[in-house]
Amino acid sequence: MRHVIWSILLLTLLCGVCSAATLSVEPAGSTCAYEETVNLTVLVGDVSNLGGFDIDLRWNPAVVTLDTKPGNVTLGPLFSGHVNNSAVYTQSGRIRVAAVNATLDGVSGSADLFTVRLKAVDDTGASTSVNLTVNNYGFLNSTSGENITVSSITGATITTEKSNVIDARVAVPSNQVVTGQESHITASVVNRRGVETSALNINVSIVNSDGDLVKFWDSDETISAWGRFQRELAWTPEEPGAYTVRVNVTSDKHVSGTTNSTVTVTAQEYTLEFTDDYVYGPWDGRAAAGSSFYMGTYVSASHTGTIWLNITAPDHVMVEGGRHQTRYLYASDYNYVSVRMQSNTPGLIKEGDIRFDIAANGKTDSLNGTEILIWIPSIRVSSVGATSVGDGKPGELTFNTLHTNNTYDNVTKIIVQSGARGRTLSGLDYLVGYPYGCVEQTTSRMLASLNVKNYYLDRDDKPVDWDNIRERVNSSVSGGVQKLVVGGEKGQNSDGGWSLWGGEPSESSSSSYASYTLARINMPDEDLNRLLVGKITNGSTVDDGTVNFESLIKWFHDNPDNPASGTWTWSAHVCHSWSPESNTAFVMLIHNMINRTVDVQEPYRGYMEDNMKNATRYFVDTQNQDGFWSSGDDKAMATALALWGLEAFALPSDNVTVQQIADAKEKAKTWLIDAQNPDGSWPAGSYYGWYDNGRITESTGYAVLALNATGLTAENATIQEGVNWLIEQYESGGGWGYTWASQVAIDALIHCQPTEVVTGEVKIAIDGEPIVTFMVNATNPRFEHTLTSDQMGTLMAYGRVVRPIEASGGKGEVRSHSLTAAITSGNGPILVSVDHSQSAPVNEIDGKIQGSRLIQSFGYEEEAGLLQVSTDIGILSDAPLVQENSNTYDVGITSTEMVAGEKAGVTITVRSEKENVYSPMIEIPIAGFSFDNASTVLENGERGAFEVLSGTTGNDHPSLFIQSVGWEKNMEMTYEFNITPKDHGALDLDLRIRPLYDDTDVTFANATFTVMGRGNVTVNVVDEDGKPVDAESITLVGANTVADKSSYTFTGILEGTYPLVVNGTGGRPSIHTVARVTPDATALYNFTLPSSLTDPTLVFSEGGAGSIAGVAQVPPEQLNALRNENTTYNVTVLGNGGKIGIALEFPMRYLMNEPVVLVNGDPTEDYKLINGTFTYDVEQQTYSTTNATLIVYNTTAGNNTIEIGFEGGKLGKARSIGEVTTTDALFILQIAIGLERPWDTYDYIDVVDRDSRKITTTDALYVLQQAIGEIRDEYYNVL
After folding, report:
1. For the chain, which domains are there?
2. Which end of the chain lies in a sparser environment, N or C, as judged by fewer CB atoms within 10 Å?
3. Please, what is the average pLDDT of the chain?
4. What is the dihedral of CA 608, 614, 615, 619, to 10 degrees?
């Protein structure tokens, strides 16, 4: 450029003489609207021989700028410049033009030098002067080459026109409105200019589908710079149908931008009701006091939106979130609405005491909640006492009651019974149950059921529910037979024996239990022997559904545990006979019953005789000279069974004579009688882990049966003392222990308990208050009276205070009561007992009561009297705290993710803290889930044994029983199986552990799991005009991706939140959000894919509602070196309670600082930033960048204001903070020459020709010149 100018000047120096001239710009004054152009011409007058010129033209770039279109500078017809107008040099607010005349004479007179086209960039009415400057040697004579004197220079003035640029919008929270209900419209007009508008007329109208005007509003407003007019208007659609809402803006002055806007709404009748008229609560209808529980139901709504939910509940029920709540519903029949509750007050919340009420848009509905029992962790505690009256002698006893804050279910029973030894025991039906478990457990239950039935069968005073008991017995025994026959779950093997859990190989303990039980059932005097009619086979035949006793005899013959003697010692550790002598005698009893009921043929008859001869020889050879067998405390049980076996089936042989057998029996009989304890029992050895009372019961029962088998009658004193001990052991509350011991005890009572009764009348009083009078006789040998509610109220109101209970917070105490009994006729003896029981919170009683479950006074404790044994382990299920003292297992319950209707894996781990846990049973009530009986239960990774049977908790639910051989101390056992939860919500999974050897040793554990549900997500995609548009892809992260769809429903999605991404096509942006999935519901998300996000745009809405009512922006000023770049947006959003999202793209460089986002004036973090890109090519010295995106989430009900503020940096800054300095210039220089520097400020270091996106040394030079403040201003213009 400089070469061109100097060439022109040299040319003009060679010719012409100096002349005077004038310069001017025309038109001298002009007006220009925003973004319109004006042409200014520079003229010369009174000039002579003008050979060339070099002139600067300057103006304010904030008002006008050089138009960028071609032809923006043209030379006058008498002048010419360098090709391509390179004679024109442009700069911000300045243009330099040089040209020459092609003739030697030059230009004389007046002429147009050049014309420039300027464009208005201001709309505020601002003015700028346009000034001329002649540069050195810029006006030369064409002949002399001298400067031509310019006598005057006249500039021009350009004034911009003040104009209105607005953005008018009308918006509604939802396009679906309700007839007869007030709806709201928001009209907004935003001033897009930095000056106040002229007077604007703003009107809003609503027109129905027939074109009739329904509503009209009108307002005259003036809007401040960058400001906004906004008004919320109300209207009520009276008729269903489509309505068009329009805002229109006019003015006397020019108005540009968006001057009108319309939206269409549809009015419909609103419906709201409960879907299925049922409120779902805890699956078992109860909740623990102090623990949370959920209640929920399904609601049908015709419109998406917010409803009122009111919960009515008793005062003691706390409702999380309050009793008056709101819920956001979809237009669906299956909106699941639930609340979380809690109560610390135990008792029954009756159906209807909790009520759900819903209301919205003038519609209401009510629904009563289900019944719920609020229970507290508690145990059943009791106090018992007994006395005897007769021969005019009264009786007296004392018992205790417990008084705590929350005791409940208080029951006091008085039992009056003939005191003769023949009294009928009550409550034995607790032993009747369906057989389950290993062979031993199955047969124990079968024999217990069988003996209970036989005990009551011939008695006149049968239980009142005898028919039910007998039916249950028949079911138990029949079910057991099916399990034990060939092909059954624990059936006979092909070799003739049985194994503990079924299958090969057989072993002697299970073979003994199974065959003993089946042989007992097959006895001629047993009415259930019909169960085996036609099911007994002979020889080697082993058919499904049958039992072959002959093959069993052969199995015993071929498989003695002690081959030297040909006898049997049970190999499994679950047996209840504790010595080889006992085991062998048991096999003799089995052979005896088979011999009496089956016509055993050869060779099996020979096997049988060999077996019995070997057993007989064994007993004769091993008997102690004093008459007993075995050693230690087990002598009595071993001797009793040996004696019974010899009486049943002793056979002489070559080595054993009949006399030897008789002598052995007599010596055993004598020893056994002498070995009886003073209390009537026989001793038994203590075996770790086994219930001592059970072992003593078994020893005593076998002793009674053995002595009876020798010919001693039931009246024999020894036998009767044994019988009395068994009766008293049961009636004292101690029970008989494990099931096998119980069936032995009942068997002894069946054979040896007499049946005579006495007569007498007894009057009963408690604390001096008469209660009841009974007449006991042969017809009515036993009475039971439960105190009435009035009598119980009197009892609990009085009593002598024995001691306080500190655990109850000082309010609890134990009270003592006195029961007196007087006989008014007859002689007696008549037994009178009291059984008081009540449920007590474990946190309100002390350790001694917890441990014994007896209401102890810690002073004199009464002797236990008549008391029925309770095995209600449902009571124990209420007492997890009790087991802090007694639990001997470390139990863990875990699960894979649980989903309603889908299989989940449950893992139970058990670590025993005691030795020798034999044949434990894990019971899991099947409630709230289903279990596939054809599936597998794994024990430590291997297939385990299990059954699904009726539960033992007294409810209607079946239970899964997992069976194990045994647990070693400190060895972790793992059980894995699958369940299918029925419904979403909370699932309480309980388990109870009971070992084989002690039915009273119950351990409880539980865990609560969250069951997830599945729902659907529907996505609709439209453009900015609301028309469906195919997205490139729709992705629900965690589900799947679909392509080229404008609408799609993701089904069966697990409840929760999921990233949802809609990628646009044709340059449309991608939208990211989060979808909420709720069970049994379809979430609706509408996405808008606009062609641009340069302004805040509604990009998605939940439930299909929501809109932007208006956007006001204060735009950033021109980039400069003194002030950080910043801009703010003020967005009004409307909604009906669903979540919406607005998106905005912005230059990546704004991310130098976090955006500031406010909702209704308060900071929020509910937004997501999606980074753009910024890369730099070192070799090309170029950078590239894409915009970042901000998505702001808002759950809007009505009208919300979202404010967004961005602040970037300063032009020319290479570091993120501070002013522009020479150091920034140095950093930019280093980047420009290829040295690595951190890019802290993105493209703010590009100050020259930013459109080229290159970083060069010129950028560094300009920044240096600005930093020293002498060459360039803040815009990097030359000063």
Report:
1. 21-160 (2.60.40.680), 164-268 (2.60.40.10), 272-375 (2.60.40.10), 378-422+762-851 (2.60.120), 429-752 (1.50.10.20), 883-1012 (2.60.40.1510), 1013-1091 (2.60.40.10)
2. C
3. 85
4. 160
